[in-house]
Amino acid sequence: MKNQKALIQKGINYDVGTNFSPGSRTREWRKDLMEQEIRVIRNQLHCNSIQIYGTDIDRLIECATTALENGLHVWLQPRLVEGNQEETLAHLSEVARTAEQMRKKYQKIDLSLGCELSIFSSGIMPGSNHAERASKLRTMWWLVPWYNKKLNDYLRKACAVVRSSFNGKISYGAALWEQVDWKEFDIIGLNLYKLAFNESKYVKNLRKFHRHNKPIVIFEFGCGSFEGADKKGPESHEIIDWSTPVPKIKGGIIRSERVQADYIKELLTIYKTENIYGAFVYDYIMPNKPFSPNPQYDLDMGSYGIVKVYPEDSEKPYSSGFWEPKEAFYEIAKFYRTN
């Protein structure tokens, strides 16, 4: 297979703060830390593109502006977790209008209409929150075609809303179970994690998307930093028990940054070979899952971040601007630099 269109967009995900829990965000907002991290992504990680996602529109725009001014191509992906269709469309419409103003100035900005909306928005699948809806994938799997029909009905509305004010390219971050009608989209967008149940047919499944004759971008792929994380992929965070007063790691987990590094390198190599247009590692940094030398409290094992941070009560807290690259950081930097 020819490689002239392979990995044109070499990227990573960057969260500006997402409302997975009501009234809270996955991270505090510090513009100075964000600016430092964007420079690292461009200059040390050798990315030429970035997917910026999160809930607050001001943060999305501030981060996108910084990325564009540092020469990165930007995919902007607003996330309004638990929003209904009306709320989500209004949120998306506001982002689209602002993104068009940025596109006129900087050119290199495109828009993803969302991420795995069948579980992260309300009204497509039954359940009072995203965890309940995700559980239905196991217990009510025979209804997935019905959920996909409702998802595509929503995405058609979303495309129309965005096209009315935004003239860049549009895509969507589709989950493994989502069968998206890609007719309205410029780019096929996949959250294509490899894990135990699909690893033997991963490449075969990936190749099927070439039938649409559109560029393919992998918007999310990654895993945690522990032995066996490569088999868990997007379920790596489930090793964290959040129900205790101090969150801790469930028993018997052994830290391994090498597992994460090898997993990401393997998939990047596949994407290059299979003529995939863009790839975005999930994720750059997750300050809410800090490292600890005590394995019981080493939440970084369940983080998808390729850099690790230290807790606020340590000598080098994240708020001081300190973080450390993990083994995956160096593998990605080498791959992006040499390809």
What portion of residues belong to β-strands? 15-25%
Strand order in the largest sheet: 5-4-3-2-1-10-7-6
Counting structural domains, the number is 1
CATH class: Alpha Beta
> Which structural class do the helices and strands define?
alpha/beta
Beta strands, count: 12
CATH topology: TIM Barrel
Describe the 3D structure.
This protein has 339 residues and is an alpha/beta fold. The protein has one domain: Glycosidases (TIM Barrel). Helix content is 36%, strand content 15%. It has 10 helices and 12 strands. The protein has an 8-stranded parallel beta sheet. Strands 8-9 form a two-stranded antiparallel sheet. It has a two-stranded antiparallel sheet with strand order 11-12. α1 (31-43) runs parallel beside α2 (57-69), α2 runs parallel beside α3 and α3 packs across α6 (144-163). It starts with 8 loop residues before the first strand and ends with a helix.
Per-chain topology:
Elements: E1 9-15, H1 31-43, E2 49-54, H2 57-69, E3 73-78, H3 85-106, E4 109-115, H4 117-120, H5 130-139, H6 144-163, E5 170-173, E6 188-191, H7 202-208, E7 216-221, H8 229-232, E8 240-241, E9 248-249, H9 257-273, E10 278-281, E11 307-308, E12 324-325, H10 327-338
Parallel strand pairs: 1-2, 1-10, 2-3, 3-4, 4-5, 6-7, 7-10
Antiparallel strand pairs: 8-9, 11-12
Helix pairs in contact: 1-2, 2-3, 3-6, 9-10
